[in-house]
Specification:
The structure holds two protein chains of two kinds. By secondary structure, chain A is an all-beta fold. Chain A has no helices and eleven strands. In chain A, the strands form two sheets. In chain A, strands 2, 4, 5, 6, 9, 10 and 11 form a seven-stranded mixed β-sheet that branches. In chain A, strands 1-3-8-7 form a four-stranded antiparallel β-sheet, with no helix packed on it. Chain B is 0% helix and 59% strand. By secondary structure, chain B is mainly beta. In chain B, strands 2, 4, 5, 9, 10 and 11 form a six-stranded mixed β-sheet that branches. Classes of the chains: A mainly beta, B mainly beta. The interface between A and B is medium-sized, with 28 and 28 residues.
Chain lengths: 115, 111
């Protein structure tokens, strides 16, 4: 059973603080993703990584950075939080394989509130 | 870039059939996926269409027309537990490793 875990379920931070959101998957998946989810906007891709130390920008990378030093771990970094980064952050992973098998597994999410 | 359009809300009664449409504009299309998300939960995979046609999985079916950049999710014999948000998502990117989601459709099932 695939498991994707995220370091925190809820976080409250003040504007300007640095935040690390960690994601770990236990199924040796090559691809990992960070999304943010906001009402009416669905899931928007922030960054993704298809291999260790590799990263690609998604649709809304501004204000975020990522780190993938180990295959199982993908971190999202908010260097200086702002109130517009208040959101639900979802991590996901997916294996590289036959295109037909494209199930993406999500973690439980981290709800971040920036005051 | 990629964009997806789906209705924001759909309401149906128990036992009915409902269809959630999705149109997309994308570069580098590999397939269309559907995900379900209950309130407070994580999205979970429902189906994936890489080729034109209908894929059936129990009460749920998904359809794709690549020439029309259109797909739909069909839910039959609706149950109260089907009340959730449903997202279509396009698999694209240079190597087919980027999944981009629509804004989601809230399905409300009434008794």
């Amino acid at each position: 059973d695939v498991k994707v875990t995220q370091s925190s379920r809820y976080l409250v931070k003040r504007t300007g603080e640095k935040v690390f959101l960690e994601c770990v998957q236990d199924m040796d998946h090559e691809n990992m993703f960070w999304y943010r989810q906001d009402p009416g906007l669905g899931l928007r891709l922030i960054y993704f990584s298809y291999d260790v130390k590799m990263k690609e920008k998604g649709d809304i990378p501004e204000g975020y950075s990522v780190s993938r030093e180990k295959k199982e771990r993908f971190s999202l970094i908010l260097e200086s939080t702002s109130t517009n980064q208040t959101s639900m952050y979802l991590c996901a992973s997916r294996p590289t394989g036959p295109i037909i098998h494209q199930t993406q597994y999500f973690g439980p999410g981290t709800r971040l509130l920036v005051l | 870039g990629q964009s997806l359009e789906q209705p924001s809300e759909v309401t149906a009664v128990e036992g009915a059939i409902v269809q959630i449409n999705c149109t997309y504009q994308t570069s580098g299309f590999y397939g269309l996926s559907w995900y379900q998300q209950h309130d407070g939960g994580a999205p979970t995979f429902l189906s994936y269409n890489a080729l034109d046609g209908l894929e059936e999985t129990g009460r749920f079916s998904s359809f794709l027309s690549r020439s029309d950049s259109y797909g739909y999710l069909l839910l039959q014999e609706l149950q109260m537990k089907d009340s959730a948000s449903y997202f279509c998502a396009v698999l694209g990117g240079e190597y087919g490793n980027k999944l981009v989601f629509g804004a989601g459709t809230i399905l409300r099932v009434k008794s």
